[in-house]
């Protein structure tokens, strides 16, 4: 990671936990907190300027993803921070905006998750899905489509893969850190 890819906003610098990997082409701005073993891959933009972004331990944000938030207002006094739980895999070119993701979630490539969405633990979101504002995705299901719909319960092998995917990226980021 370079000094230029971690940028302050109004005097607030990103907070980076132990053993994190941030690709030099990623840009992280403002009130962004990364827990231990988080990986941020090429061309990710995380902008914690008008609210906070928190990413839990062992989560990975893959290439080209945009992370942003919603500002506080009279209509929405808390705004919408972006909260990502532990062991979350966010696929390539996703957009997460002012939403809350629980633990052990896989967000498929190109998915868009909008303001006020809550994704409970142990969820698969299919590639290219659009999760409209203020929707709740219930734990233990696969969701697909535009707009997203609950497709079916997760198989046991899929549920187990959610943690395995995060573990795979922890191993990969360790390889990058040890080069």
Automatic annotation (TrEMBL):
<dbReference type="Pfam" id="PF00132">
    <property type="entry name" value="Hexapep"/>
</dbReference>
<dbReference type="InterPro" id="IPR047324">
    <property type="entry name" value="LbH_gamma_CA-like"/>
</dbReference>
<dbReference type="InterPro" id="IPR001451">
    <property type="entry name" value="Hexapep"/>
</dbReference>
<dbReference type="InterPro" id="IPR011004">
    <property type="entry name" value="Trimer_LpxA-like_sf"/>
</dbReference>
<protein>
    <submittedName>
        <fullName>Gamma carbonic anhydrase family protein</fullName>
    </submittedName>
</protein>
<dbReference type="InterPro" id="IPR050484">
    <property type="entry name" value="Transf_Hexapept/Carb_Anhydrase"/>
</dbReference>
